[in-house]
Design brief:
By secondary structure, the protein is α+β, with helices and mostly antiparallel strands. It has 3 helices and 3 strands.
């Protein structure tokens, strides 16, 4: 697996701290609250995590594939 960037790791931490799978709309709200990210930032980082195999986003349900 490719190395995770800081932003990718921060999103994984948000996922690890909530009950998953989580709806992507709720994830956007959580990232706004805890990381001060906008919607496009959240989806960009999420897309990169999915491409690396660290998370999955199916039917708007996001699940981390890595554990701490």
């Amino acid at each position: 697996m490719d190395k995770l960037f800081d932003s990718e790791f921060r999103l994984l931490e948000v996922l690890w701290n909530v009950e998953t799978p989580i709806n992507s709309t709720k994830l956007v709200a959580l990232c706004k609250e805890s990381l001060d990210w906008n919607k496009s930032t959240t989806y960009t980082v999420l897309r990169k995590l999915c491409q690396k195999g660290a998370a999955k986003n199916e039917n708007a349900q996001v699940t981390p594939l890595l554990t701490r």
